[in-house]
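Any chance you could type out a protein's amino acid sequence plus the matching backbone structure tokens because I've never seen that pairing?

——
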Amino acid sequence: MSSLAAVALAVGGLTAAVATPAGAAPTAWSCPSGYFCAYTNFDGTGSRCQWQGDSSNWYNECSWASSTYPKSLFNNGTSGRGVTIYRYTGKVSPIGGCVDKGEHARLAGNYYIGSHSWNC
């Protein structure tokens, strides 16, 4: 388990974001190659938002980010870089460690994420 997953469980370029309709949840851990994905449910299920680059404001780019706690993340990037998630917009207040390339992270599901960066 990565440091992000351990901490999350203990603590509770161009951006493209897509939220899947409530009735059309993607297959578990569905995330296009080269993207970082967040899900409304545990184990990569539920509605999904996805980004190909950094995001300074999830609330403007993901339809559910301001009303639903994300419960799982998947770094399906191809650059080899990991992703840092932040509690607030503008990449302020990092949460946990790095979501490494290829990692599925299960979050506590009791906090919002405001931004992220491919920087670790």
